[in-house]
Amino acid sequence: MDGEDEPLIVLRRGDSVRAWLNVCPHAGRRLDWAPGEFLRAKNGDLVCAVHGATFELDAGTCVAGPCRGDRLRAVPVEVRDGCVWLAPDDAPAVA
Ligand code: FES
Fold first, then answer.
1. Residues lining ligand 1, judged by CB closer than 6 Å?
2. pLDDT, tens digit (0-9, with 9 covering 90-100), for 54-92
3. Which CATH superfamily is domain 8-86 in?
4. Ligand 1: distance of its center to the CA of 26 in Å?
5. Which of 1, 48, 51, 52 has the CA that lies 20 to 30 A from 34?
């Protein structure tokens, strides 16, 4: 942020969308093993490719691994006209 490009993780299910910075709270590395390629647990949780931290995808909380209890940094997004857009920081979260 602050004028810098930042990779995002975007999860969309119909009109429900969530986004987080693609930065692991453990060591600040990207979670994907190749650009846009993510590891998923059998239950759908997101797994960091670096050291295996596992994140549930409601609040982005780490539920297992070296940063258990930490969270991915949420980015406000919304669906408008069928597309995902960055939302103002004070916009209500879309569930
Ligand atoms: S950087 Fe993600 S678990 Fe270590």
1. 24, 26-27, 29, 48, 50-53, 65-66
2. 999 999 999 999 999 999 999 999 999 999 999 987 655
3. Rieske [2Fe-2S] iron-sulphur domain (2.102.10.10)
4. 5
5. 1
